[in-house]
Amino acid sequence: MNYTEIEIATLDAVLKDLLIAELSAIGFDGFEETDLGLKAFSSENSFDKEALDLIVNKYSLKFSQKEIPQQNWNELWESNFSPISVEDFVGIRANFHETIKNVTHEIVITPKMSFGTGHHATTYMMMLLMRDIEFTNKSVFDFGTGTGILAILAEKLGASDIEAVDYDEWCIENSLENLERNNTQHIKISKADTAITNRKFDIVLANINKNIILSNIDALSEDAASKSIILLSGLLEEDEKDILEATKQKGWKHIKTIKKDKWIAIQFEVSR
Fold first, then answer.
1. What CATH architecture is 3-77?
2. Per residue, what are the HEC states of the chain?
3. What's the pTM value of the predicted model, to 2 decimals?
4. What is the domain class of 114-270 according to CATH?
5. How does pLDDT run across 3-36, given as a tens digit for each residue?
């Protein structure tokens, strides 16, 4: 499968964040900030030219476009992927990097198209919130798993039953490879484009974007067991009001919101 690369010229950091959020909602799932602006990547099957035009026209921007073979995309990631540490809690690296020292947990991620390497603020914050949650012998649902990184961390923290889903075949392929590389035993990966599971979980993770979260708010609420914890991210600061309003209607208790680089992650508790 080939990918479509677009490049938008803008040096405005806040605008880049807005573009990432809006492009994520229309099928773009890889991003690279450059000296000239922002590159975004979409599988050719997901590329929506009309939706893209609406976004760039709204901000009076222009973009260039080209096609990239899958193997070249992998080479691009491998040449640009660098290890990262989430404080002294988690170290994330590729298999060709040296072991990260002085962290509690280490995760090895094959750097491919899938979203979720720890570099983006949303994944980073989700991990920070997970640090203070008791996962031992808990059931976990990871909605929009991407690379599988949050599901892998959940198992390392002691979760015994983890179900992770994503709508993209490439993410499924990548996450399965990452599960094997990290020797996981308790994670089930499947393809799905909604949060409907027909079961209950102790902990629910959703690091996607505002529109998908809001459209799945009923299902996410149904996924929550008694006294469960829900973590949401993929959200900009200005998204918080709408998210808190929607979750309040479902009876979710807002525990805290953390912020990083204009992005937020929110923790809720759901009591039945």
1. 2-Layer Sandwich (3.30)
2. CCEEEEEEECCCHHHHHHHHHHHHCCCCCEEEECCCEEEEEEECCCCCHHHHHHHHHHCCCCEEEEEECHHHHHHHHHHHCCCEEECCCEEEECCCCCCCCCCCEEEECCCCCCCCCCCCHHHHHHHHHHHCCCCCCCEEEEECCCCCHHHHHHHHCCCCEEEEEECCHHHHHHHHHHHHHCCCCCEEEEECCCCCCCCCEEEEEEECCHHHHHHCHHHHHHHEEEEEEEEEEEEEHHHHHHHHHHHHHCCCEEEEEEEECCEEEEEEEECC
3. 0.81
4. alpha beta
5. 899 999 988 878 888 898 889 888 887 777 777 8
What is the residue extent of each domain of the chain? Answer: 3-77, 114-270
